Amino acid sequence: MPFAPTEVTMTTNPLVTFKDVDYAILLGMPRREGMQRKDLLRANVGIFKEQGDALDRVAKKSVKVVVVGNPANTNALICAHYAPSIPSRQFTALTRLDENRAKAQLASCTGVAVENVKNVCIWGNHSNTQLPDVAHGYLVAGDREVPVADYVADKSYLQGEFIKTVAMRGAAIIAARKLSSAMSAAKAVADHVRDWHLGTPNGEFVSMAVISDGNMYGVPPGLVYSFPVAIDKKGGHRIVSGLDVSPFARAKLDATTAELQEEKREAFDHIVHQVAAVPAVTAKPVMHGAQPATPAQGSSVSTN
Ligand SMILES: NC(=O)C1=CN([C@@H]2O[C@H](COP(=O)(O)OP(=O)(O)OC[C@H]3O[C@@H](n4cnc5c(N)ncnc54)[C@H](O)[C@@H]3O)[C@@H](O)[C@H]2O)C=CC1
Ligand SMILES: O=C([O-])CC(=O)C(=O)O
Prior knowledge:
binds 1,4-dihydronicotinamide adenine dinucleotide; L-2-Hydroxyisocaproate Dehydrogenase, Chain A, domain 2; three-stranded antiparallel β-sheet; binds oxaloacetate ion
């Protein structure tokens, strides 16, 4: 059914904003030229604590949260932590913009239409340490599916300039327009929410930063980390399993993990210093779509 809003409410009260919402798309203060995204941590972390707390109190327990405000992965983790009654897997951060940028690079260097570039994914943090990964990607050419590596033979480009261009694209846009990307970010949010709502086609995956609990790629639990994700028709997402990780990719996955662990430490340290007491960590059940999982799959966002 087409979306037909009947009412728009403008308010600065998060308890009004989030009352009974199904989806929450969260922004925050943007960076300026010369800053890293993680330089926003101290400015934004308090906002995400407050928003997590408000979501916990008034949103539907099935709410789906998309954190866009940077540093997006760590802000999503903070938000989840302060919303202990909502399953942490319902908190995601946007890395679809990076995926779209990666696909656009491949489309422009191969001449294949961007919608025919599939299964290119972003691992890790929405930052310079991310890995835009083409190892499982393919291009649809007529009735053939051609691996990216067969189309783009220059491995040094795929492991060098390509990754750098995608990871640094946000900074390049800020340098050019003195403001963050706007329309492309909005398009990426729409892509993220559409796929979370309607599901991904069979055999295809997309990039979403989700809670890392239970992944099989050696990423420690308790981080919000971008993975290749498949989504069923009921909106249940799962990290795609069984993809090969090359030694090159392994080193990148570990580097972006280390950065996220450092951001997490800094975020909670900052909150602890700002706020007299941090609420106790509460275990939350892992949800697959609308289905509650067994206690053995219980997930929590710890401050470790
Ligand atoms: N994950 C991604 O792919 C992308 C993330 N971003 C991030 O999205 C966020 C928004 O970027 P823009 O729309 O360019 O910024 P903007 O400055 O146009 O909008 C930011 C909004 O946040 C509000 N805000 C500022 N301080 C606040 C506070 N203390 N409490 C509540 N609201 C507050 C402002 O009133 C404003 O409406 C930034 O954090 C930016 O880094 C932007 C583009 C892509
Ligand atoms: O770079 C920024 O600050 C905004 C952003 O996240 C992006 O465009 O990828």
